Every structure is written in structure tokens, then in C-alpha cells.
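Exam prep: given the inputs below (a chain plus NAP), describe the expected output before reading on.
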Amino acid sequence: MTMNVSGYATKSAKDNLAPFRFDRRDPRDNDVVIEILYCGVCHSDLHQARNDWGGSIYPMVPGHEIIGRVISVGPKVKRFKKGDNVGVGCMVDSCQHCDSCKEGLEQYCEEFPTFTYNAVDRHDKMPMYGGYSDKIVVSDKFVVKIPKNLDLKGAAPLLCAGITTWSPLRHWKVGKNSKVAVIGLGGLGHMALKLAKALGADVTLFTRSRSKEKDARRLGANCVVLSTDEKQMKAVKSKFDLIIDTVPSAHDINPYLPTLSLSGTLVLVGYLGDLDPLLNTVSLIMGRKSVAGSVIGGIAETQEMLDFCGKHGITPDVEVIKIQDINKAYERLLKSDVKYRFVIDMASLKG
Ligand code: NAP
Ligand code: ZN
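Solution:
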């Protein structure tokens, strides 16, 4: 017997999201059944709903910043029990035996991880539906614990925006003497500021939006650079050990390379695709600099980030919306008009 679930889906790249009922699989022995309380709205939801990356599967229920409460667990589940507050992020499964999975880097699974939606289950080949819904069934290995002191609606964006910025900060060993810059103050960008600051770094925001300066400083930036102002760009020449670029669309990264220090790295986490204009390598070669990429983070690392946020009292700045307002929220996201993450209150599904 499958479980009937209520959610919001889009039927094509051109449609709005609308109410949708669908079935989730029968819980397996190692599954956790979760009542979804909140779900963050990531720019990746919008990219996939509108097929920006190609290959989207419809109907699509987006949502991969899931916070919920455990309703029941399979007989083999030991880490969770009914009533626990839990989170689910962008992945719900992986092969579990390749070198990446063995290292806890399931996001780089050599057989490709199973994403939370816009994917098919690797065992029964059923379509996967995401968090804009009232229940989800997830293998216990891909469920994380939410620290008690974190506000639940505020914690939702940690499951993607939080881990996607945490993972490069940790990989490039950001700490007290680091100089970090973040490009773009949206969902990911605002988490990058908060987390880099909490790790002790000196933090700069590159933005196109002069109006975001005050917020950026409140969120942890020591310095704000208007990326369209050449003079301001020159003033931070050779400054940064790490730049985290969260811009969602094709953009020119060449102007940022001179702002990297010797051996510095610009890590792309936003845009997927060909760079336009092309990358000029002079600045890279003359300063042993790198341009890198990074996708979300592993499950153990996600738990580490959540625990760090619990310890330091870090939660995203969220604007809570009803599911009925999701299409308006997407339009605002396209205009960079969000402070700084929409989170859907899933109780509104009943409204
Ligand atoms: P978001 O909330 O829309 O924020 C993006 C920010 O980038 C905007 O607020 C804006 O900041 C800046 N921006 C937007 N368009 C720009 C343009 N054309 N040129 C320069 N700057 C621009 O998006 P998000 O949810 O943070 O997601 C950002 C990107 O990361 C998306 O592409 C998403 O798919 C991707 N993502 C990747 C991963 C991963 O694992 N690698 C995980 C999650 C999301 P300013 O107003 O400050 O300029
Ligand atoms: Zn996301």
C-alpha cells in the first residue's frame, strides 16, 4: 500500500506550480517517514522547474530544504524515533560503495547520487518528489538531526544554502586568518557571509545591489564591494584567499580573478554551464590561482554544519510564505528580491 501525499507540482517548464496529489513508496526497513513542516525555496528549484539545466522530469514537486517531524520509522532504523525533528537536503540516496561514498562524500557518488526530486529512485525506479508536500519517505542514512535550539523554519535553508557554502569554506580550510569574499547576496550568499564570519574569517561581499550594503554588514561582511564599480574592484586587488561565487546565471568571472591573492581560489557554486565571456588565464597563471567548483556537501558534513549552527546560534534570515504564494516567490527570486530565503510553511497546504 503506497502513501497518498498532497503537494504542489509543475507539469512543464512553462506552467505555474499547482496542487498535486501523488503516492510515495511504502516505507522500507531502513526508511524514516517524515511529516514536512517547512521547506526552503532554493534558486535550484526554479532552475529545475523551468528546465534551465535540461532533462527535467515532470510532473515535478520541487523542494530540497526540508524540515519535518518523524511520524514512523522502519524496523532497522536506530538513529531516529517518532517525534524527532529532522532535516532532509538535496540527496536521498547514493550507491554507498564507491570511494566517494566511503569517504562520506555522497554528493560526488561515482554512480551519481539520487537527488530529492527531479530524479528516480535507484531501487524501484519510481519518480522522486520533493519537499513542497506534506510527507516524505527517506532512507535513514540521508536524514539529519536538527539541534534543539534552532528555530525550525529558520533551519530549513541550512539543508542546501547552508551546506553548499559550508563545504567549500571547510574544504579550503577557512579560519581566523582567512580573507573570504562572496559574490551575490541571495540565499547562498547570505549563508556564506554568516558561516565565514563565524569561522573567524575577514569577509567581503561583492554585490550589484547598492541597497544590500547595510544588510551585508549585519550578516557578517566587514567590507562591501559594488562589483560594477571598477575603482572599488581595484581597491581589493590580491586580497582574497577564497571567493565563493553564488551567481545563478552566466556572468563574467574575469574581473574577480585579480582580487584573489597568490594561490587563491574562486569556487563556483551557482552557475552551471559555459562561461561567457571565456576565462582569460593570464591572471590565473601569473598568481597560481584556481577556479574550482563545488556541489552541496556530504551527509556527515551536513550534520557537522547543523551542529556548528546550533552551537553558534546561526540561522538563515527567512521570509515565511504560504504554498499558494510559491509562483509569486519564484518571480521575486528572479529579481533578486528576497531577504534572504523564502521558506514555505507547509501547514498552508491544508488551507
Ligand atoms: P538567489 O537567492 O537568487 O541569489 C543569487 C544572488 O546572485 C542574487 O541575490 C544576486 O545578488 C546575485 N545575482 C543574480 N543574478 C545575477 C547576475 N546576472 N549577475 C551577477 N549577480 C547576480 O539564489 P540562491 O538560491 O542563492 O542560488 C544561487 C545559485 O546557486 C543558483 O544557480 C542555484 O541553482 C545554485 N545552487 C548551487 C548549489 C550547489 O550545490 N552548487 C546548491 C544550491 C544552489 P546581488 O543582488 O547581491 O548581486
Ligand atoms: Zn538548493
